[in-house]
Amino acid sequence: MFLKGLKPTLFRISTKLTLAYSMVLILSSTLIFSFLYFQITHSLQAQERSILVSKTEEFANRIEVNGLEDFKQYFEVLRTFDRDSSLIVTVYGENGEILFSHSPTPQPQFDQTLLVNELNKHGESTFEFSIPERSGAEAVLVLGKILKNGERLVMAKSTEGMGKQLRYLQKLFWWALLPVALIGFLGGLFLSNSTLSPVRELINSMKKIERGSLSTRVPVGGSEDELEELKLMFNKALDKIENLVNGLKEAFDHLAHDIRTPVTRLRGRAEIALTSEGDLESYREALQSCFENSDKILSFLQVLTDITEAENRSKKLKIEKKFISELVREIMDLYEMAFEEKNIKVIQKLDTHDWAMVDPRLISRVIANLLDNAHKYTPPGGEVIIETINQTESVILKVVDSGPGIAAEEHGLIWQKLYRSDKSRSEYGMGLGLTFVKAVVEAHDGKVSIKSPVKDGRGTEMEITLQKMA
């Protein structure tokens, strides 16, 4: 049970950061100590060797200048001083016999046979080696020199004192490592808490959003680090999500309103036909009405499907080279009578070289939607301008009407599904025309834009850009 409760705690990021900080601090302290320990060891060894070298030169010169008897008298006079020192001094004759020997108190215990064997291996004028002591892990450092008369002066010194100093340093390090580990743990806790506090704020905000509070935002501080940038991006994403959710709610309201009318009519006519005793002609009219209203519903749903396919680019476009002016003329043939009925003057400024790589069927529907909007919102006696502009790499199509215009705050909303401005409520429509236009044009890697008002506070200019190269 304890391990089960411990596992989630161990895998928390705060725990990992705390442990990582502690380990880094401990490892760095260990590395620093190892470096210092190596330097101190090297320095002590160099110091010990330096003492032996200087003493060896001093004693060799004394023996060679004053003789061995003087050297013996020298140690007799300074016996007390030399007894307290840690130097072992031995003079060997040419045949290996010991002519003089001096040992400190206490005397290091080592194998004399091993020492003689090592001496016999070195025939140089000066030599240096080390041999282990019989007890402990210490060693005896040996330096020597062959004198002019063939005798050999051997100096030895135990490294026990140096070993004690190094062992003291090791013990000091292990005791110092405990507060270092504690400091590392506390520092890791502080670091993890301060570092992860923005993440906790994100988690708390997400929990509130999960409970339904879409207006919740993560508090932003004054720092400019990556976590603050993450909070800003998270808040922007929440803004978009809230707008999308609100837009969906509004869209479903509009969708229910737009579908309710044809469905109600369809049901009403069907109910009348079923409950009344009419003639064949009345039944035919009822079926005709049901057909027309069901066709409106199917058309509405089909446009929604087309928009989704265009936005997701799930349907492959049938791209071909097509003159936009030709498509405009074809659609105008269908709308010409409608414009004449409202006495709307249509001015066409079509370039003869306005070709682009497009799907003719979809772009024709785009042009039809733009002309349909221009016809709806241009008052009787008004004017509509259709213009194509040929460019090196693209073609621009503009449709300008003289209607009431669109408020600036609605310029970004008119492309949304089912959005209808207050000015368009009186006109029948599904609120999908401009959404379809934007989706299809962007599927062609083109651009859409709006300018309103155009002149004297009235009019709307719709502009689309289509590429010459697919």
Please characterize this protein's 3D structure.
By secondary structure, the protein is α+β, with helices and mostly antiparallel strands. The chain folds into 3 domains: 2-165, 2-Layer Sandwich (Beta-Lactamase); 226-312, Helix Hairpins; 320-467, Histidine kinase-like ATPase, C-terminal domain (Heat Shock Protein 90), CATH 3.30.565. Helices cover 57% and strands 16% of the residues. It has helices at 2-10, 13-66, 68-77, 79-84, 112-121, 160-210, 226-275, 280-312, 324-341, 360-377, 433-443; strands at 87-92, 98-102, 126-132, 139-146, 152-158, 320-323, 345-349, 355-358, 383-390, 394-401, 447-451, 460-467. Strands 2-1-5-4-3 form a 5-stranded antiparallel β-sheet, with helices on both faces. The protein has a 5-stranded mixed β-sheet with strand order 7-9-10-12-11. α8 packs parallel to α11 and α9 runs parallel beside α10.
What is the CATH fold-level name of the largest domain?
Answer: Beta-Lactamase
| Percent helix range | 55-70%
Sheet with most strands: 5 strands, antiparallel
Q: Please report the total strand number as a whole number.
A: 12
Overall CATH class of the largest domain: Alpha Beta
Radius of gyration: 50 Å
The low-confidence runs, each spanning 5 or more residues with pLDDT under 50, are 1-7
Order of helices and strands: HHHHEEHEEEHHHEHEEHEEHEE
Number of helices: 11
Mean pLDDT over all positions: 79
What's the quick description here?
The protein is α+β, with helices and mostly antiparallel strands and 470 residues long. It is 57% helix and 16% strand.
